Amino acid sequence: MSQTILRVEGLSKVFPVSYSVVERVQGRPRRAVRALTEVNLEVRRGETLGIVGESGCGKSTLARCLVRLYDVDSGRIVYDGLEVSGLRGAALRQYNRRVQMVFQDPFSSLNPRMTVGQTLREAILVHRLRKPEQVPGRIRELLELVGLPADAENRLPHEFSGGQRQRIGIARALSVEPETLIADELVSALDVSVQAQVVNLLLKLQEQLHLTVLFVAHDLRLVRHLSHRVAVMYLGRIVELAETERLFTAPAHPYTQALLRAAPELDPSRKSVVEAVKGELPSPLNPPTGCPFHPRCPQAFERCSKEVPALLPRGPEGRWVACHLLEATP
Amino acid sequence: MAAPALLTVKPRARRRLKPSLVAGLVIIGAFVLMALFPQVIAPYSPTAFDYQAVLQGPTAKHLFGTDNFGRDVFSRVVWGAQLDMQIALFTTLFPFLFGTLIGALTGYYGRWADAIFGRVVDIVVTFPFLVLVIAIVAVLGPGLKNMYIAVSAVGWITYGRLIRAEIRGQKRAEYALAGQVMGYTPARIIFRHLLPNAITPAIVYWMTDMALGILLGSSLGYLGLGAQPPTAEWGVLIADGKNFLATAWWISTFPGLAITLAGVGFSLLGDGLADLLRPRG
């Protein structure tokens, strides 16, 4: 269980912003969105790692870098001993067969002109996972696995509801028999009642197929329900990583504390009185110096604005935190 | 696990053919029949002179009348369909195919290919279409073959722009990203996934373009740059009758109506196809 399957080291990704002639003449520096900065992460075989953060924190960028939809600017992605960031051609195809992704938008993530059967058949045949005569049986197997009726095979995506489409997306990802599934906001576009069904399907599949899952989401309750460990991202960096229950019951990083406090509480008697965070989310075009959270942090001190805190292990239970406060009081 | 009621699939919506599609199919079908079997439909030869029956108005014997050589206008219009349907197809087929290919590639890859394509478009759209075509025909010499070359050299630009814009939109859709993550080759993603979702506007435009092709072929025929007399071509027929407009209106009018009807037919077909090809949901 504790064997590392995916290791990310110092991963950075920058999106350049268009550089106008006027800016060039004025001698202004070229601006860029720093989507990911020095991200370090280890994913263990068979676990579900939740990745949470506000929108714009880089969690989807991270997911897309991991499946090589984006080329990384610097840093390493090592999957099962294999350096991923430079893969091309057949080797990349082989990697993508092992590491699959389920997308966010149930309405645009399926080709509207291909039936469910065609979509699955294509994936199976391109990767030569079955002989052509075995494909129909495999498609039935996959549909059953994700809880879709057998007659779904000959239907087009528009004939399904959002939840069913996400099941189709999962079936497509599973059709190439991956070991790792990256779910980018898998259920955030669905109704709450349907969310639970899809999430429970993911749990069932993970157990059945021994999948490693990276669950990228902004919904804290879902992440808590699903994940073994949780990584919290802020402005392109991971600020805290810990086992789910430890993180939710005793958050160490001020940002994690604020995030949990900001989550809606069902019990009105437990209304929070402490101010969660102050100010606005800084622009990733112009991230603050030092700790990215220091302008909004209620406990910031001088060092926070000067020095970036490293993500370091804190305590015996495998918790990693990037915060100067914890360094000051070991 | 039995599928709960929530998982039953929505009933498939029945597709109804739009009246515009049916009307377009009937009109264009009629012209295609004329083009395929003119000898069956036309009562006379399109080029046979009959000096006993010169400049006769429409009668039961000569449905659309006769011209100044006694040629039967109805037969000439029917034989003209053969040539004008051919013009409609050959002035648009190459632009459609080549423009689609270039548009798909530049739209998907972007960068330098896109930049070059953009400049070519800028240059070509600066010239009025007809002027450019006439200039090329003037250089190559009149005749149908050179007209096809001239129209093809310019016409593919429009298809390229249409497809490029559609592909650029489609390639950001998550199903295109999913194709990449599935490990599909760019060729498979472009031609099997993106193009079927991007080609509808080009097909619809193709239908309109065929109407424009007939108009263009007729215009060039009228100007003496396209089909050459005595070939029965609608534009040539109109030109034949222009000196008799006051005395024998039928010589120019009926080929003109044929052009109009073909144009309407292609437009209706395009409209109907647009509805038929639109993805549901």
Tertiary shape of chain B: elongated
As residue ranges, the low-confidence spans of chain A are none
Order of helices and strands of chain B: HHHHHHHHHHHH
Number of helices of chain B: 12
Q: How many domains, in number, for the residues of chain B? A: 1
Query: Hey, roughly how much beta strand do the residues of chain A contain?
Result: 15-25%
Span of the ends, CA to CA of chain B: 28 Å
Polypeptide structure, described:
The complex is a heterodimer of chains A (330) and B (281). With 330 residues, chain A is α/β, with parallel strands linked by helices. Chain A has a domain at 252-330. Helices cover 31% and strands 22% of the residues of chain A. Chain A has helices spanning 21-25, 59-66, 89-98, 116-126, 135-145, 162-174, 192-209, 220-226, 244-249, 254-262, 324-328; strands at residues 4-16, 32-44, 48-52, 74-79, 82-83, 99-102, 180-184, 212-216, 229-234, 237-243, 312-314, 319-321. An 8-stranded mixed sheet of chain A has the order 6-7-8-3-9-10-12-11, with helices on both faces. The longest helix of chain A is centred in the middle third of the chain and has 18 residues, at 192-209. Chain A is globular, with a radius of gyration of 21 Å. Chain A starts with a strand and ends with a helix. Chain B is mainly α. Chain B has one domain (26-46, 56-277): MetI-like (MetI-like fold, Orthogonal Bundle), CATH 1.10.3720.10. Chain B has 12 helices and no strands. Chain B has helices at residues 19-36, 38-41, 73-90, 93-109, 111-126, 129-140, 144-170, 174-181, 186-198, 200-223, 234-241, 250-277. The radius of gyration of chain B is 24 Å and the shape is elongated. The relative contact order of chain B is 0.16. Mean pLDDT of chain B is 87; it is low at 1-11. Chain A binds chain B through residues 64, 67, 69, 92-94, 96-97, 100-101, 103-105, 107-114, 122-123, 126-127, 147-149, 151-152, 155-161, 163-164, 169, 172, 176, 197, and chain B through 1, 3, 6-10, 12, 173-175, 177-184, 188, 192-193, 196-197, 279-281.
